[in-house]
Amino acid sequence: MPVSMTFFGTTTWLLDDGETQLLLDAHLTRPSMARVVFGKLKTNTEFVDEVLARFPMERLKAIFVSHTHYDHVLDAVYIAQKTGADMFGSASARNVGLGGGIPDARLHLFEPGSPVSVGAFEITVLPSIHSKPTILNNDLGVAIERPLTQPARMRDYSEGGSYDFYIRHGEKTLLVRPSCNYIEGSLKDIRAETLLLGIGGLGKEDDAFHDTFYRETVGYVRPKRVIPVHWDNFFQPLRAPLPYQTRLADDVAGSMAYLKARLEADGIAFDVVDAFETVEL
Ligand SMILES: [Zn+2]
To answer: How far is the CA of 36 from the centre of ligand 1 (A)?
Structure first.
């Protein structure tokens, strides 16, 4: 059964096998930087409704939240409410769900290492690590301790632990790594055909980090195809073509060139997917 994957910028993907849909992270609203820094954040329901009209999610069964920074979780509650999907995440993600009025029975705490079946998808949550903190997100490991309601400040959406997803569907395998970092050796027994590789911040790292990061991710996983994620400027509205993150915050062109060269040398496909584009798993 073919499985399609549609990209919505940052790390948000819709997986669909024709029967079951899964959402990985949920960030469509993309508030401006001024709002993120100085204002309060809430789902742009009008815009999310537009996206849902164009990409119906009436078979959405689950939303998996990789961590609870706003650029991963901001629209999870609204989409869960509109579709009836369950949410899966950390204790912090549960508090985002509770604050938005999602019944506790539909909020599932991650049990890393134990596969969860949703339709024909089997998802295993893997403990991971966030990319190195910046001035905007220096709260790694800080949990959201109480139910969180919108509008909320960016800092209220604290990280709460970061996770990767290993997804199997029939013979197909996918590893999802939203954050650009590595825990030494943690992927050495993981193999996946497709790797969604978070590269946010990679352009700010030095050559030694690049090489270790590549070895610790692609080197172990040995995918046939790498699709980069978290490379776009998410302070801009969601549209195609997605703009790169600003040169001030990252060097996306440099990261892309590095990956392209390394992957080409290793005979691995490198597919840059644009917003609203659908590829097959
Ligand atoms: Zn984050």
So the answer is: 13
